[in-house]
Amino acid sequence: MSEAVRVQDLDEHRFAVEVKAGEQITHHQVTVPDSLLDDLVIPDVDRDRLVTEAVGYLLERHPGLPTEINLVEVEHADPRFLEELRVRLGGRPVPPEI
Questions:
Q1: What strands lie across the sheet with 68-70, from one edge to the other?
Q2: Backbone angles phi, psi at 34, to 5 degrees
Q3: CA–CA separation, 39 vs 82, rounded Å?
Q4: Residues forming beta bridges with residue 69, ordered by sequence position
Q5: pLDDT tens for each residue of 70-84
Q6: DSSP string, 29-95
Q7: What top-level branch of life does the organism fall under (predicted)?
Q8: Beta-carbon-side half-sphere exposure of residue 38 (alpha carbons within 13 Å)
Q9: Quick check: 6 and 45 in contact, CB under 8 A?
Q10: Beta strands 3-9; 68-70: pairing state
Q11: Where are the domains of the chain?
């Protein structure tokens, strides 16, 4: 089943997200801290698209999403998250620091 994700800006760092899967609709609030944007290393990234791709990534791995989602917490919990987000947004991989 595919999900439709709708994103609405609440302010610079918070987004209301509606996920529709079949007849079921869920609502979430996603927080995108500046530190995640710094770690992402994609200048002038479209935040709505970033949230859409992040929610898509989470839906592929988790059947149900929490009501409140902080993307920095996701970044810390899932080591693949940031790199996958870069790929989905068309950014270049960032080599690991030595």
A1: 3-9, 14-21, 24-31, 68-70
A2: -55, -35
A3: 8
A4: 30
A5: 999 999 999 999 999
A6: EEE--HHHHHHHT-TT--HHHHHHHHHHHHHHH-SS--SEEEHHHHHHH-TTHHHHHHHHTTPPPPP
A7: Bacteria
A8: 4
A9: no
A10: unpaired
A11: 3-88
